[in-house]
Amino acid sequence: MAADAEGVARVCRLLAGVPLAIELAARTVRSASPAMIADRLAGGLDLLETSSPDVERRHRSLRAVIDWSWQLLTDEERRALGRLSVLRGGFDLEAAGAVAGATLPLAAGLVDQSLVTLGEDGRYDTHELLRQYAAERLAADPADEQATRQRHAQHYAALLPDPAEAPADGEGDLDVEVENLRAATDWLIGQADPVRLDTHLVRLWPWYRRRGLVPRDPGRPDRRPGMRWRPGHRTGPLASPAR
Fold first, then answer.
1. Under a CB-based contact definition with an 8 Å cutoff, are residues 230 and 242 in contact?
2. 15: number of Cβ within 10 Å
3. Using the 8-state DSSP alphabet, how is residue 1 labeled?
4. What burial letters (b/e) apply to 53-83, b meaning 16+ CB within 10 Å?
5. Per residue in 57-102, pLDDT tens?
6. Cα dihedral angle (83, 128, 140, 232), rounded to 10 degrees?
7. What whole-number distance in Å separates Cα of residue 71 and Cα of residue 65?
């Protein structure tokens, strides 16, 4: 029972309380445990569908619902939403503009359509399953995806403090961008450009160490409050703020 409860909680978190998504997920309970459903959901949208004739056709899968919403967007909104999919762990308006070319009115429009959320801290975010869908759309245009990811890496690299300068009082404000910094690092690794990657890591690594995000001994994770070590990450023992 405890495992089922944990699985149900994971499903609800992944679906962010979206009623239709939860209803579609509930229809699979007879054939899979909540934990299995959560694992499948983490991999994409396609689990959430039904062939039941009592459900309107465009509501028979979450992908169909998002497809329908996507068609209602302007070209500018589609382009921005696709580009926003490279941002991870939330983002501010400055990043939305630098990475996706999203202006305040455009971002506000996406919020009004419930495609992007705006938190009390002023940071925007995208539901994970919607982000996956938008990422698929972006990937359909390899040139745009490459350019977007390059802008993303450049934007977040520019936020890192210069290692040659004394630590600034406000550099902890960058803690909220750990997920974006990790995504930028992953992308740079995949580019097989050692010069650019080295330039990035020269700025990233000292900041990680000062913030206590890199354990001194990989066998003994840093237990600093609010942080957790993430072993097995392909870029090294990087950590992120605990949630």
1. no
2. 22
3. -
4. eebeeeebbbbbbbeebbeebeeebbbbbbb
5. 444 466 777 787 888 899 999 999 999 999 999 999 999 999 999 9
6. 100
7. 10
Query: What's the pTM?
Result: 0.69
Rg of the chain over all Cα atoms, to the nearest angstrom? 20
- Specify the long-range contacts of residues 134-140, CB closer than 8 Å, at least 24 apart: 134/81, 134/82, 134/84, 134/85, 135/82, 135/85, 135/86, 137/70, 137/78, 137/81, 137/82, 137/85, 138/82, 138/83, 138/85, 138/86
Which domains does the chain possess?
A: 2-68 (no CATH), 73-141 (1.10.10), 160-243 (no CATH)
The predicted-structure confidence for 121-175, as pLDDT tens digits, reads as follows 999 999 888 898 899 999 999 999 999 999 999 999 999 988 777 666 666 688 8
How long a stretch of residues is the chain?
243
Measured CA to CA, the distance from residue 243 to residue 236 in angstroms comes to 20
**What is the distance, to the nearest Å, from the Cα of residue 213 to the centroid of all Cα atoms in its chain?**
19
Q: Which two tokens stand for residue 85?
A: 């999919």
First to last CA, the chain: 24
